[in-house]
């Protein structure tokens, strides 16, 4: 999180954007970047979200720095100043030290590398950098005067008159606990014509810091039920519930596990002004502090739906989404349209609503009941025919 006051030079022209700089390795691990313009003070403070997009000036920056543009809705006139708050999330940005451990009782250390000064294409008059760590167990830090520490917080600066694209490398080694990363998550959302929405999440997870040198022993784990299921009867009357997942050092959930639940259709299905129906769901996962390397959401539409269109409101164009339209088949229908939304490097900030619009055919709402009644009628007719045949045969034998 960066908060900076930007001032347009008195001799310059109106500024329509503010450039944000990142190193190439940061762009590779960049999950999301947001910029907000802050106006006013205290209770009258107003926050205006800004659109962020890659800049076409990247080729002209030194040392391979990559630039993004935060577009200002109101141009910044010469001599004027404004405050920007920039939030960006980096995934897989720490290195385990050591890379592997022998016992799970050993301390797990990681290295975090950064710069003591803000990477920016502008001249910086005054700045300070604060690094807040998850624990007070700090093994080592890089000292760049002036540097101070208070508990789990490290302060670098204040620094004055820094030149553009300045880099002062720092490293912080601290202790962390085991944490999980979702390698792959496949979510299937089945939307029926009537009833409940069925959501199925299939996870493949791993522990993402130090690897465990020894063989992972299953008897050392807590008791695991053969079906590994959570009974819905114990949670159906609750407004919310928590499923606790405890990763261990060296833990790798190779066989993926599945979590499923149902949602009332009337709370998520709506009709637009143009007559189309649309489903309103949330993209992302409930684990806000968990990274998903590869995420795919499949929305299976009701039978007879056509012309599906997915709309995802990601905060910046860095989130690339694919919308292939395919067909899903089951045991009782002739094929249903489905939309697949794919995204890599997903974090908690990606938990935003998305909509899938489609054109529905009301006659298909009777498809499942009609099929059921047709099967029942056929079974009754066959049973009646067999009964008549056996009765006739028995009557002929009695006559003989």
From TrEMBL:
Keywords per UniProt: Endoplasmic reticulum, Membrane, Signal, Transmembrane, Transmembrane helix
Pfam families from the UniProt entry: Ribophorin_I
Subcellular location: Endoplasmic reticulum membrane
Membrane topology classification: Single-pass type I membrane protein
TM regions (residue ranges): 370-387
Organism: Panicum virgatum
Name of this protein: Dolichyl-diphosphooligosaccharide--protein glycosyltransferase subunit 1
Description of how the protein assembles with itself and partners: Component of the oligosaccharyltransferase (OST) complex.
Any one GO CC term of the record: oligosaccharyltransferase complex
The protein's role, per its UniProt record: Subunit of the oligosaccharyl transferase (OST) complex that catalyzes the initial transfer of a defined glycan (Glc(3)Man(9)GlcNAc(2) in eukaryotes) from the lipid carrier dolichol-pyrophosphate to an asparagine residue within an Asn-X-Ser/Thr consensus motif in nascent polypeptide chains, the first step in protein N-glycosylation. N-glycosylation occurs cotranslationally and the complex associates with the Sec61 complex at the channel-forming translocon complex that mediates protein translocation across the endoplasmic reticulum (ER). All subunits are required for a maximal enzyme activity.
Superkingdom in the source lineage: Eukaryota
Any single biological process term in GO: protein N-linked glycosylation via asparagine
Recorded metabolic or biological pathway in which this protein acts: Protein modification; protein glycosylation
Family membership: Belongs to the OST1 family.
């Amino acid at each position: 999180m960066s908060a900076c006051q930007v001032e347009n030079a008195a001799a310059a022209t109106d500024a329509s954007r503010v450039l944000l700089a990142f190193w190439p390795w940061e762009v590779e691990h960049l999950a999301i970047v947001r910029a907000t313009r802050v106006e006013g003070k205290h209770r009258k403070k107003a926050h205006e979200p800004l659109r962020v997009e890659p800049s076409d000036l990247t080729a002209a920056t030194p040392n391979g720095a990559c630039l993004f543009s935060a577009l200002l809705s109101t141009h910044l006139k010469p001599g004027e100043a404004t405050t920007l708050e920039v939030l960006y999330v980096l995934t897989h940005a720490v290195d385990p030290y050591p890379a592997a451990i022998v016992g799970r009782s050993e301390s797990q250390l990681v290295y975090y590398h950064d710069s003591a000064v803000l990477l920016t294409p502008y001249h910086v008059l005054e700045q300070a950098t604060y690094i807040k760590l998850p624990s007070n167990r700090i093994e080592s830090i890089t000292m760049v005067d002036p540097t101070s520490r208070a508990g789990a917080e490290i302060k670098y600066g204040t620094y004055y008159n820094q030149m553009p694209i300045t880099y002062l490398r720092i490293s912080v080694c601290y202790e962390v606990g085991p944490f999980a990363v979702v390698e792959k998550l496949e979510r299937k959302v089945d939307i029926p014509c009537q009833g409940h929405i069925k959501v199925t999440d299939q996870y493949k997870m791993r522990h993402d810091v130090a690897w465990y040198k020894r063989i992972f022993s299953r008897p050392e784990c807590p008791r695991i039920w053969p079906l590994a299921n959570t009974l819905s009867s114990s949670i159906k009357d609750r407004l919310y519930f928590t499923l606790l997942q405890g990763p261990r050092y060296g833990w790798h959930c190779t066989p993926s596990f599945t979590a499923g639940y149902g949602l009332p259709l009337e709370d998520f299905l709506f009709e637009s002004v143009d007559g189309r129906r649309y489903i309103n769901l949330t993209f992302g996962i409930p684990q806000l502090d968990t990274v998903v390397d590869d995420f795919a959401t499949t929305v299976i539409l009701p039978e007879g739906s056509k012309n599906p269109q997915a709309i995802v409101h990601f905060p910046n164009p860095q989130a690339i989404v694919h919308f292939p339209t395919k067909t899903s088949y089951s045991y009782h229908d002739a094929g249903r349209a489905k939309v697949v939304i794919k995204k890599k490097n997903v974090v908690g900030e990606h938990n935003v609503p998305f909509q899938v619009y489609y054109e529905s055919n009301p006659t298909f709402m009777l498809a499942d009941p009609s099929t059921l009644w047709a099967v029942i009628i056929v079974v009754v007719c066959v049973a009646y025919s067999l009964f008549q045949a056996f009765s006739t045969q028995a009557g002929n034998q009695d006559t003989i």
